[in-house]
Amino acid sequence: MRDVIVVGAGPSGSYMGYDLSKRGLDTLILEEHREVGKPVECTGLVSERVMKYVHTKAGVNRVNGARIIFPNGESTHIRKSEKTIVMDRDRFDKDVAGMAIDAGSDFSIDSKVIGVRESRECVEVRYRKSGNLVEERARVVVGADGVNSRVRRDIYGNRPRRIVSAYQVDAAYELPDQDSVEVYLGSGTSGGFFGWATPAGDTTKIGTGSLYPTAKKFFDNLNARFGKDKVLGINGGAIPISYLRRTYSDRSILVGDAAGIVKPLSGGGIYTGIVSSECGAGVIADAIEHDRVGMRKLSAYQRLWKKKLGLELWFDGLVQKLFSSLSDNTFDRLYSIISTPEITSVINRVGDIDYPSRVVLSVIARNPEIVKYLLVKR
Ligand SMILES: Cc1cc2nc3c(=O)[nH]c(=O)nc-3n(C[C@H](O)[C@H](O)[C@H](O)COP(=O)(O)OP(=O)(O)OC[C@H]3O[C@@H](n4cnc5c(N)ncnc54)[C@H](O)[C@@H]3O)c2cc1C
I need a surface site. Which of 24, 49, 90, 156 has the fewest CB within 10 A? Predict the structure, then answer.
């Protein structure tokens, strides 16, 4: 019997495999696709923090600003001293998988998990490897299998409540300002989320998110701003922006997108997924070492990730709910409030893509009226 089976070789699953193997656990990672990193469903924007976890040369550009475009066409520019990295996500995923393999994880591609069952003694995982049915047992299973997690479906029977559908393309369009991401607000370009154009050298990732069933119509409006159609490839996906109430069971934990451990305001989940895996690996190793696998022991995982990320994700979730209900008029009014030199300099100073609550709270502290305005005038 294996110590751990990790389902899914995205960044969360591969980092989990790496960390568990480094701790000496017999770990198998199962990935349904024939190639790790494909298909790409991501913009690849991450902070420098991610580079402390993963040794990679996947960076294709670095940006240090954001141009926020309001529904009335006005824009404000935020510029930070730290750079945000635009990654080639395919290469990044392969690099994390390489770390897991180098650390000793067994790795199996073309292995789609079709059933997971917990018992008192073990967890049974059934998967199709190149079409053949295989069954393996392990002490613990980790659900790192993304937004439509099979592990979550079979053991937890639920899903994150708030899911954004995202539609993104790679376009043969070179943004004039390669140092800034463009962020589009309002009902023309997104459904309760935002639209974006991210410079990646001679191509641009243009996309949008929607809390309603489809993001395509918002994307079409956004894409029209970039002239005649220059789409090279389409790569949408779903982003869970609320986490599950419980992320552990008797013999399993859920990490990353499978658990909804994603930043609700931006939809970024690479950093939070890796942090959740780091928390989970320590707890699983401890449980197995003391031969005490069970709900009680694995609950430490949730306490740990919540200690590191819980308050941030909770607060950002509240702000996202408010944000998603704002009218175009309110966004336009917000423009006049946040584009003042005083507020822009606060945003420049404390803005952090992994911890946006800091900037939200600092802006409110400078201009408390903003809260009243947002709550009353939606
Ligand atoms: C359009 C878009 C843009 C985004 N942009 C950013 C961004 O700029 N920055 C950022 O931080 N985040 C971004 N995200 C979010 C980010 O992509 C995810 O949060 C991140 O990929 C989560 O990693 P994960 O390992 O938890 O899950 P995933 O990356 O989804 O990995 C899950 C893996 O499990 C595999 N799998 C699924 N089911 C099974 C099964 N039954 N058996 C075996 N294997 C299975 C999948 O093939 C996949 O490889 C974006 C998302 C979208 C949709």
Answer: 24
- Point out the ligand 1 atom lying closest to the alpha carbon of residue 114: 41
pLDDT of residue 359: 87
Tokens of 81: 């001293």
Angstrom distance (rounded) from CA 216 to CA 165: 9
Distance 119 CA to ligand 1 centre (A): 28
Strands (E), 212-295: 231-234, 237-240, 252-254
Q: Spell out, as residue ranges, where the chain has pLDDT lower than 50.
A: none
Ligand 1 atom closest to 93 (CA): 29
Task: Report DSSP letters for 97-111, one per residue.
Answer: HHHHHHHT-EEESSE
Q: Whose CA is nearest to atom 2 of ligand 1?
A: 42
Give the separation between CA 301 and CA 290, rounded to whole angstroms. 16
The correct CATH number of 2-218+237-321 out of 3.30.70.20, 3.50.50.60, 2.60.15.10, 1.20.1300.10 is 3.50.50.60
The pLDDT value given to residue 369: 80
As given in the structure block, the two tokens for residue 205 are 């990732």
* pLDDT of amino acid 377: 58
pLDDT of residue 295: 96
CB contact burial 163-192 (16+ within 10 A = b; e otherwise): bbbbbbbbbebebeeeebbbbbbbeebbbb
If you take atom 18 of ligand 1, which residue's CA is the nearest one?
269
Q: 68: exposed, middle or buried (C-beta count within 10 Å: 0-12, 13-18, 19+)?
A: buried
- Among 35, 43, 99, 165, the mutation site with the greatest number of ligand 1 atoms within 8 A of its Cβ is 43
Report residues whose beta carbon is within 6 angstroms of any ligand 1 atom: 7-13, 30-33, 41-46, 112-113, 144-146, 150, 166, 168, 207, 236-237, 239, 256-257, 262, 267-271, 273
Domain limits, the chain: 2-218+237-321, 324-376
H or E, element range at 27 = strand 27-30
